[in-house]
Design brief:
Blueprint (H helix, E strand, L loop, with lengths): L3 H4 L19 E3 H5 L3 H12 L3 E5 L7 H12 L3 H4 L12 E3 L16 E6 H6 L10 H4 L2 H25 L6 H4 L10 E7 L22 E4 L5 E6 L5 E3 L8 E2 L7 E5 L1 H6 L9 E3 L11 E8 L15 H8 L2 H4 L7 H12 L7 H6 L11
Parallel strand pairs: 1-2
Antiparallel strand pairs: 2-10, 3-4, 4-5, 5-12, 6-11, 7-10, 7-12, 8-9, 8-11
The protein binds 2-oxoglutaric acid and fe (ii) ion.
The site of 2-oxoglutaric acid (AKG) has 10 residues, from strand 5, strand 11 and strand 12.
Protein name: BY PROTMAP: gi|647396133|emb|CDR38156.1| RHTO0S03e04720g1_1 [Rhodosporidium toruloides]
GO molecular function: metal ion binding; oxidoreductase activity
Family: Belongs to the iron/ascorbate-dependent oxidoreductase family.
Length: 371
């Protein structure tokens, strides 16, 4: 599959600096995984059990990305009064519009500098029936574009779940059963814009705890099972490799998505699969003058499913979870929904009481919080 879709970029931008040190990622060829190539599945397994991040190529819907960015552009062009009725709010919902500055990015109380438009999978697939919420007209007018992106992204990530579950001894279909179509879940598409300096919507970063500019999206682990991220060539995504203290850039590669393991896959697997911490910082020069777009699909379990290591389904998971202090400390009564809501509520700047609110928003990067 040629990687044309991402190289034919028509909006003005500069290139990510060729000489900037970046963290290398393994490259997984989706077409080979889908064809059952065990060597390729070994590469995927290795990526998910180490850094938890990898590039994915040949995923087969490269043509669905630009129409999603176009939907984002139309949405972010609306006036604030038109967008705010569709805002996420402060009670733990992710679906909807998120204005720049609505979430905290650190314990100090700095706020993010990006806008999101998130569309829940359950809403898109049921449209015009409303499962979680309604969306701006710019989304409704393009719901077939959104639905097609969600379906194809979901299929790809479901396939990766399928080949990964076998490797950890889970019976076939265990993870799919936690992601049933029609269940209300946190699965969603997201278009992200960090406006360029001087543009409408631009918000400058605050001063971080170390005196450097604060992050545009604060350090976090993702909430769900797997995330699939597409850029338009602009850098700024960084990972903190386990056991190190130096943030490292991920190089944008045309035609390649960046995928990563999230908290719920880490927990279900007894922490065999790693949900690694990452953040977005202002793009490195010369891209600091550009607008930065990204597009993500998150696959997340149905809200009502319990969230704990799947001990009774696999001896491999059981043996691993029993050796892992964070997994042993997992509260027994939490669900995928309670985990998700707790993290979102405590990230919202309006809910901040102090550094303890930031601490309460954390995922598997520290000993997990109670639900
Ligand atoms: O925009 C990016 O590069 C990353 C976004 C991200 O980490 C997220 O939305 O969870
Ligand atoms: Fe993320």
């Amino acid at each position: 599959m040629p990687s044309v879709a991402q190289t034919e970029i028509s909006y003005p931008r500069t290139d990510f600096p060729a000489d900037l040190e970046c963290h290398p990622l393994l490259i997984v060829d989706y077409a080979k995984v889908a064809a059952g190539d065990e060597k390729e599945i070994d590469t995927l397994y290795s990526a998910c059990t180490n850094l938890g991040f990898f590039y994915l190529k040949n995923f087969g819907f490269e043509d669905k990305l630009e129409p999603m960015f176009e939907m984002g552009k139309a949405t972010f062009s609306l006036d604030k009064e038109e967008l705010m009725p569709f805002e996420q709010g402060d009670s733990g919902m992710s679906a909807g519009y998120k204005f720049a500055g609505s979430t905290n990015v650190d314990a100090k109380g700095n706020v993010d500098t990006v806008q999101f438009i998130n569309v829940a999978k359950d809403d898109a697939l049921a449209y015009p029936e409303v499962r979680q919420r309604t969306y701006p007209p710019t989304v409704n007018d393009r719901m077939s574009t959104v639905t097609s992106f969600i379906r194809q992204s979901d299929n790809v990530l479901q396939k990766l779940m399928k080949v990964l579950e076998i490797r950890i001894g889970l019976p076939k279909g265990t993870l799919a059963a936690l992601h049933k179509e029609g269940d209300i879940s946190g699965s969603e598409s997201r278009v992200i814009l960090k406006s360029a300096p001087g543009q409408k919507g631009y918000v400058p970063e605050g001063v971080g705890e170390d005196g450097n500019p604060a992050a545009a999206i604060g350090a976090h682990t993702d909430f769900g099972v797997l995330s699939m991220l597409h850029g338009r060539g602009c850098g700024g995504l960084q990972v903190l490799p386990p056991g190190t203290s130096k943030w490292q850039y991920i190089r944008p590669l045309p035609g390649h998505a960046v995928c990563n393991v999230g908290d719920t896959l880490s927990v279900y697997s007894g922490n065999i699969f790693k949900s690694n911490i990452h953040r977005v910082v202002p793009p490195p020069p010369p891209q600091d003058k550009d607008e930065r777009w990204s597009l993500v699909y998150f696959i997340r379990p149905g809200f009502d499913n319990p969230l704990r290591p799947l001990l009774d389904k696999s001896d491999i998971v059981k043996a691993h979870a029993e050796k892992d202090p964070a997994m042993k400390a997992m509260p027994k009564d939490q669900t995928a929904g309670s985990w998700f809501k707790r993290r979102i509520v405590n990230q919202r700047a309006a809910n901040r009481k102090g550094p303890e609110t930031w601490a309460a928003s954390r995922g598997t990067e520290h000993t997990p919080q109670a639900a």
